[in-house]
Amino acid sequence: MANSHGTITTDNHAALWHGRFLEGPDAAAVNFETSINDDMRMAMVDIQGSIAHAKMLCKQNLISKDEMDAIINGLNSIKTDLLKGKDKNGNPFKVDLSAEDIHSFIEATLTDRVGEPGKKVHTGRSRNDQIALDERLYLKHQIKMLKKELVQLINVLVNIASENKDTLIPGFTHMQHAQPVTLAHHVCAWAWMFYRDADRISDAFKRVDLSPIGAGALATSGLPLNREFEAELNEFSGVTANSLDTVSDRDYYLEVASDLSMIQMHLSRACEEIVYWSTTEFNFIDLSEKWSTGSSIMPQKKNPDFAELIRGKTGRVYGDMVALFTMMKGLPLSYDRDMQEDKASFFEAYDTVISSVRIFREMVRTAKWNKDVMAKGCEGGYLNATDVADYLVRKGLPFRTAHGVSAGLVRIGIEQNLKLEELDFSEYEKASPLFEKDIYDLITPKNCVEIRTVTGGPASSAVQKQIDSLKNFISSNKSDDVDSEEDDWDLIFENYYK
Fold first, then answer.
1. What letter would DSSP give residue 419?
2. Are 305 and 292 in contact (CB under 8 A)?
3. Is 498 exposed, middle or buried (0-12, 13-18, 19+ CB in 10 A)?
4. Tens digit of pLDDT for each residue in 114-140?
5. Which of 50, 78, 358, 482 has its CA 20 to 30 A from that of 462?
6. Which of 361, 410, 363 is nearest to 382 (CA)?
7. pLDDT tens-digit readout, 327-353
């Protein structure tokens, strides 16, 4: 609390480092340095980590069993009260936003509740390795949550694909009509992007899944700590190898922030297509009114605002990633206070991406696809010109020569304002004696699709293989669901912003 001179007095809720100072910092300085608005969402993992630390301290005979029990009971009571928003007497209970950070608040509250044992919970650890522990524990949970959302999105896309293996749609290069494909093929392309995203964050999880606790401020501790035991309690796969690197490392945030940027980029690309597909000119997709907005002046408008917002928020995610890399680029080993800024940037990026994934999923799930319009789009633009060339290749003509013949027929079609399938057969005969009248049957949009049975192609049989692979991925990742109790981890944060 501030005294008459505007400085902070020392009591149980003072900064953890206050003992060195005769005079507390200026109130403005405290407001500038506090991080609790950002890190309070880690309250649950901070409690989890402290419970594990108390058990390790007891195992190593650094505190008694009675002290351990008091600490654990006190921490569990704080957890219960935070989730309920009130204490056992029914009084309101929330994180004290005047505290320096969530670690200070929980330790001070614990000491208030259990007395002297609360002062022992920090034995053998620094706030440096405690912060790293909380971040890694929280990030492990959030990676699982994000992967779960991505798997659900892939499942929605697979369902759309399964229902549209025969739904024709023009494919584009350079935003020009290129070749006919199917809606299933196109939607599977989206699904594979998100499949890679899920795979990337799963890979990042391996590097997050190492316990930093016990690294201390930078040089571990002279006390007989047991890092491996504490890592096991916190369900880590192992411990970090070097204490100096451990407390100065934020690679886990940088790597996952890069993955988040790629996820948002993939969402943005898909949303870009949805935006122009929903125009009057394309009219391929009709978004649900639940995921559209109107105009403040034009009564007829139905705007794809949510797709546009996802696209627009991509810049925010990129900015957060760049902020993290810029923060770390010049820092000497080991810990520097600059690193406090990591949470604001990372949490914003994560929140933006996971909300975008959820919005995109529901937006496409509830959309109506205008199949007749999409199919009609395959009839113009000479999308079957490559198939005309392939017809000649199958009869022995070199592809480059066949390409020229097909291009010449396209030119004739343009001059006569006719599609390739509408040209008189005499034009084909003049172009090459290899043409027979079966050319007309082989260059229909449907045949142009179904002949492409190569792995990864748009033929219904090839797309079915993609769908089956994606379904196997979805099925194999159902076990990655996050425990319902862990879903409460964000309640602390959410309760302060409602």
1. -
2. yes
3. exposed
4. 999 999 999 999 999 999 999 999 999
5. 358
6. 410
7. 999 999 999 999 999 999 999 999 999
Report which secondary-structure segment, H or E, holds 170: strand 168-173
- For residue 37, give Cα distances in angstroms to 114, 244, 421, 454: 26, 28, 66, 54
Question: Bridge-partner residues for 285, per DSSP?
Answer: 369
Q: Find how far residue 382's CA is from the centre of its chain.
A: 39
Which structure tokens are listed for 159? 């369902």
- The tally of CA atoms less than 13 A away on the side-chain side of residue 461 is 7
**Average pLDDT score, the chain:** 92
Extract the tokens encoding 399. Answer: 């592809």
CB-facing half-sphere around the CA of 374: CA atoms within 13 A: 25
Q: List C-alpha distances in Å: 17 to 5, 203, 373, 384.
A: 21, 37, 68, 73
Query: Could you tell me the pTM of the whole model?
Result: 0.91
Residue 291: which pLDDT band, with cuts at 50, 70 and 90?
confident
- Other C-beta atoms lying within 10 Å of the C-beta of residue 349: 28
- What whole-number distance in Å separates Cα of residue 352 and Cα of residue 350? 5
User: CA 411, 416, 421, 427: dihedral to nearest 10 degrees?
Assistant: -70
Nearest alpha-carbon partner for 138 in 40, 230, 254? 40
The two tokens of residue 249 are 């490392």
- 191: exposed, middle or buried (Cβ count in 10 Å: 0-12, 13-18, 19+): buried
Enzyme catalytic residues: 174, 295
> Which tokens go with 376?
């009609």
What is the pLDDT at residue 482? 56
Task: Please choose, from the candidates 295, 273, 264, the residue with its C-alpha nearest in 3D space to the C-alpha of residue 359.
Answer: 264
Segment holding 436, helix H or strand E: none
Distance, in Å, from the CA atom of 195 to the CA atom of 326, rounded to the nearest integer, reads 29
DSSP 8-state assignment for residue 455: T
Instruction: Report d(CA 498, CA 495) in Å as an integer.
Output: 6
The tens digit of pLDDT for each residue in 455-467 reads: 999 999 999 999 9
